[in-house]
Write a structure and sequence with these properties.
Helix content: 25-40%
Strand content: 25-35%
Number of strands: 8
Number of helices: 4
Oligomer: single chain
């Protein structure tokens, strides 16, 4: 469990009232990841939503043909900075991470249990609405970043 005050510091959690923040804090824990630590892998079941407090995290995507392992390439698809969420696949069916996440510096991270969070939003439609509105904003920002990367790659 973490303090609801910790969550209140970050804009993502701004729409939530005091009771909702307490409920989220009850299913969250803080941990430290050393530089180079793998936080989760692509296609792994998405068991948590993460908030980066300090440090940095890199998201990567692996491209590989099943019958040609030599074609494997790992592409960086985003850098997570303090105050940003990652692992949003924990809230989107089929609940599998679409990227891998690795700490690129010593980091402090909040881990929010995905099953617990999904249960909270199933019981509180307003919380669910606000959570998905915030997640949609995060996804839109990442999509814009990806478009810039694609444009640069083709230039």
């Amino acid at each position: 469990m973490i303090s609801p005050e910790l969550l209140r510091r970050y804009p993502f959690f701004g729409p939530f009232n005091e009771a909702q923040l307490r409920e989220i804090a009850m299913i969250a824990d803080e941990f430290e990841a050393e530089a180079g630590a793998q936080i989760f892998d692509e296609q792994q079941p998405a068991e948590a939503l993460y908030l980066l407090l300090e440090g940095s995290v890199e998201l990567t995507y692996k491209s590989e043909e099943e019958y040609h392992p030599k074609t494997r390439k790992v592409f960086p698809v985003g850098d997570i900075n303090p105050g940003e969420l990652f692992g949003v696949s924990a809230l989107i069916d089929p609940y599998k991470y679409t990227t891998a996440a690795r700490a690129t510096a010593n980091s402090r991270i909040v881990k929010i249990d995905a099953a617990g969070l999904r249960a909270l939003v199933a019981a509180d439609a307003q919380m669910g609405y606000e959570l998905m509105r915030q997640v949609a904003r995060v996804i839109a920002e990442r999509l814009a970043y990806t478009r810039v990367q694609l444009a640069a790659a083709w230039a």
